[in-house]
Amino acid sequence: MRLINTSTKMIASFEAGHFDIEKWKIYIDDAVPGARQICMDDMQECVEAGFSWQNDYLPVLDKVFADHETRNRTIREFCNITETLEAKIMEVFHKDVEADIVLYLGLCNGAGWAVKILDSQFVLLGIEKIMELGWFEKEKMTALILHELGHIYHKQYGLWYEKTYSLPEQFLWQLFTEGIAMVFEQEIVGNPDFYQQDISGWKQWCDSHFELIRDSFNRDRYTMNHKNQRYFGDWTKFEGYGDTGYYLGTKFIRYLMKNETFDNLILFDIEKIKESFERFMTACNLFFT
Fold this sequence. Notes:
Elements: E1 2-5, H1 7-10, E2 14-15, E3 18-19, H2 21-31, H3 36-48, H4 53-66, H5 68-82, H6 85-93, E4 100-104, E5 112-117, E6 120-126, H7 127-133, H8 138-157, H9 167-189, H10 202-208, H11 210-220, H12 244-256, H13 262-265, H14 270-282
Parallel strand pairs: 1-4, 4-6
Antiparallel strand pairs: 2-3, 5-6
Helix pairs in contact: 4-7, 8-9, 9-12, 9-14
């Protein structure tokens, strides 16, 4: 596991206190070679889905320069957390995770992003989104990093396929993999009820509406697409609540762990996942009795 802190370089992406995308291109090519096009393609996809560069992106990016106190706190927490991270993973899972963990300035591509660049696995931590979401506190940033490492653990030791399925299968695969990553972070944190999304009664609402989330997701996955889905991402809302897919995915994995080990689950292929989800759909009183 390699740690890369690009914070001393990212300020060069600003001109007179405002984000300059041409300067950012120079910074990103130097800081994370190969990441520029991935970031820009992801940003363009969001803009095409209706997000505004002027209204949704620039204010978040400009705040990285303006709010130096939060920026410095985020950098300090990154350094403190990652110092002992590898040892904690080894303690719980008895395996290492081969990845470069990078604190960088992205294009609002996500607070955490597990991605392959030039044949290497990276965890990209977008300082702009971490600051926007308030995930610079130790507990939340720890969970964020662990979540992305959970995806890489899955890729490294299990079966991992991307974008080779029908849309309904893709969303079920996403539910499963996000659940795996959520449980990975919970196991290392040592709390099966821990969710970094739990703000303003989020978990309580999800617990009391579990069947609604489950049944709605199962129905929606046959008709939704990546632009109108409402379960994954802080920018989406299901009944006014974000990230409900992460909650549901966690419950799905916890249900399966009644009979399977974590390391067996990450070997499931899509057919095994579909079969398991059918059982999950018909199970009653799963978690609250």
